[in-house]
Design a protein that fits this description.
Layout (H helix, E strand, L loop, with lengths): L1 H12 L8 H6 L10 H11 L2 E2 L5 H4 L7 H13 L15 H7 L3 E2 L8 E10 L9 E11 L2 E9 L9 E9 L3 E10 L30 E3 L9 E10 L2 E12 L1 E4 L2 E5 L14 E14 L2 E12 L2 E2 L5 E13 L2 E10 L2 E11 L3 E10 L20 E13 L2 E12 L10 E14 L2 E15 L7 E17 L2 E14 L4 E15 L3 E20 L7 E21 L2 E10 L7 E9 L1
Parallel strand pairs: 1-2, 12-15
Antiparallel strand pairs: 3-4, 3-30, 4-5, 5-6, 6-7, 7-8, 7-9, 9-10, 10-13, 11-12, 13-14, 14-16, 16-17, 17-18, 18-19, 19-20, 20-21, 21-22, 22-23, 23-24, 24-25, 25-26, 26-27, 27-28, 28-29, 29-30
């Protein structure tokens, strides 16, 4: 507790200067993040080479989650008759100030040539552990663009592994207006993501009307360092008239835990300390999809044959999956859905977004049967494994004024069939209220998030408990040109109703930031005193998303710097440590070049 009291004193003295990370509003969740999501990867790439706002396309604007369908329409309509001289001019197009501040880092008003060659080399070091021969983690990523051709090679070695190419991804890509071809490692996105979507996708977030409605290219090269569920082989799209045909084939090795010659689970961490458990399962996939686009209507159908070369404990290892999806835009408000059938199981999602710039609403219903194959899917859900879930979600974004925004959502869902050792269905609900206010240089954000769920605490006891978790979080930031500072005060509690067990936790941090044309520095110090797990999204070198998890009592600090050595080379470094412990030092170094 003494650490927490000390930091309260420091925090109360510090005064006002960090623009809020817009990404946190989307990505921050109560889960440990390390690998970047596909969206985060796109945004990072755009930050390096910002888009020209005066020459932006509808497809490029759709990348940004802070823009609604109506926002995109207003921007494009404004650009037909006007030229934007500074990003704040978007307010004349009807875009509110908070949204403008969120998208500003990704745009500029002059043309910038995209790099034709980019390379990232990253090393991560943490203090030695007795059970690991090496605590160094290494990644390199090389991307080459030439005319309609793109090439890439990514390799990674995790801590404890000796092979510098323990994981690798490679691809050759050809893109033309009506043709798209990939050879190597890639990913597929179909419909709303029930059967195929980036596994590190986004579902619920504090942006209440974003996340459920998914749009993406059908096929994309695999550029993530997440070491499972990529596809390997050939994929292509071919457009003719209003139709698009997609076909793909994959033959890939996966790492699994095997018992009695059956797959019991897959290695999601990517850490391969036992060579006998690496690439010990072969997955073969053949798939095709056909979509029809006409004006504001998109319809799709698909069929996939999937097979593992070993039996899966409790599940089928060889099955055919079929599905259909639709997007119907009426007055720029999408009605969307997908239904899939695989291994004699059904999964379905239906949703609708509606509302203008002031009030935006989202309603989503999902129904996923137990043991539905979730290997490559990531639709809207309340949990990482989305099978055995039925629920309804309602979110609303209310922009009261240009500088005042509310986000609210309600989610109710059930796990209707037995899971793990549970003896009965379990029910859950979650609510979020967030208000954001921007006044001159100051930004304020208040979030209240509550989750109620029924769960079994132990295997031995068959008694179910009602568990409530509530988070109160207040952020205050002030952006003063080059210098800025952000403060957070957070209180979290968990209450087991039946046992009347009450546990709580506190987190406070202050973050100083300085940014110039060639140099960026971020320093954060945090204190925590908690009996429950508290999650803190934090800045890192490009390519890493990270939620830090705290418990107990202590200080934590990190320093991050990014230096542009010249227009083509950037050096990034981060050091972090739990100051009250002696063996938690971590160091990140990254060199980025682009030409």
């Amino acid at each position: 507790m003494k650490y927490f009291i000390n930091i309260i004193a420091i925090w109360s003295i510090l005064t006002c200067l960090f623009s809020q990370e817009a990404e946190e509003n989307i990505f921050s969740s109560e889960a440990e993040l390390y690998h970047q999501t596909e969206l985060f990867g796109k945004l990072t790439k755009i930050k390096i080479s910002p888009l020209n706002i005066n020459d932006v396309s509808k497809k490029e604007l759709e990348i940004f989650p802070w823009l609604s369908e109506k926002d995109i329409k207003n921007i494009l309509a404004y650009l037909r008759t006007n030229s934007i001289k500074k990003i704040s001019d978007l307010e004349k197009a009807g875009i509110n100030k908070i949204t403008i501040s969120e998208i500003e880092p990704y745009f500029q008003v002059k043309r910038v040539l995209n790099p034709t060659f980019s390379n990232s080399i990253r090393a991560e070091y943490q203090q030695a552990k007795a059970d690991l021969p090496s605590t160094v983690k290494y990644l390199q990523k090389t991307i080459i663009n030439y005319s309609n051709f793109n090439f890439g090679f990514i390799s990674q070695k995790d801590e404890g592994e000796r092979n510098p190419f323990d994981f690798y991804s490679y691809y050759a890509e050809y893109c033309q207006q009506n043709k798209h071809f990939i050879l190597g490692k890639y990913r597929v996105f179909l419909g709303q993501g029930i059967l195929f979507a980036p596994k590190l996708g986004i579902s619920k977030s504090a942006a209440a009307t974003y996340g459920a409605f998914k749009q993406s290219d059908t096929i994309r090269p695999y550029t993530s360092s997440y070491e499972i569920w990529e596809l390997q082989g050939v994929a292509f799209d071919y457009k003719f008239s209003n139709l698009k045909l997609t076909a793909f084939g994959s033959h890939n090795s996966l790492s699994a835990n095997i018992s009695d010659n059956k797959i019991t689970s897959f290695n999601q961490s990517g850490n391969h300390l036992d060579p006998n458990k690496k690439d010990n399962v072969i997955e073969t996939i053949l798939g095709s999809a056909l979509s029809y686009n006409y004006k504001n209507i998109k319809l799709g159908i698909y069929a996939i044959k999937q097979k593992f070369d070993l039996e899966i404990d409790g599940k089928n290892n060889n099955y055919l999956a079929i599905g259909t999806d639709f997007n119907i835009f009426t007055n720029d408000y999408p009605l969307f859905g997908e239904i899939a059938y695989a291994d004699k199981k059904v999964a379905m999602i239906l949703g609708n977004k509606w509302g203008d710039n002031q009030i935006r609403q989202l309603l989503v219903f999902r129904y996923y049967q137990k043991d539905f194959p979730t290997w490559h899917g990531k639709p809207f859900s309340a949990q990482s494994s989305f099978d055995n879930e039925r629920g309804i979600y309602y979110g609303i974004t209310y922009i009261a004024r240009s500088n005042l925004r509310f986000n609210i959502y309600f989610d109710v869902w059930q796990h209707p069939e037995t899971r793990f050792w549970e003896k009965m269905p379990t029910s859950c609900n979650e609510q979020l209220f967030q208000i954001e206010y921007k006044h001159q240089y100051n930004s304020f954000r208040l979030r209240i998030q509550n989750r109620n769920k029924e769960k079994y605490i132990t295997v031995v006891e068959s008694k179910i408990r009602d568990v409530t978790r509530t988070v109160y979080r207040f952020d205050w930031s002030n952006d003063q040109s080059s210098f800025s500072l952000k403060h957070r005060l957070e209180y979290t509690y968990e209450y087991i109703v039946n046992e009347k067990i009450f546990e709580k936790g506190y987190l406070v941090f202050s973050q100083l930031s300085y940014k110039s044309s060639i140099f960026q520095l971020i320093f954060r110090i945090a204190a925590y005193n908690t009996d429950v797990l508290i999650y803190m999204y934090e800045n890192n070198v490009d390519g890493i998303m990270q939620n830090r998890i705290f418990s107990g009592d202590g200080f934590y600090a990190f320093g991050l710097t990014k230096i542009k050595l010249n227009s083509k080379v950037e050096l990034q470094a981060k050091i972090s440590n739990i100051l009250s412990e002696s063996d938690n030092l971590k160091l990140y170094l990254q060199l980025i070049t682009h030409f």
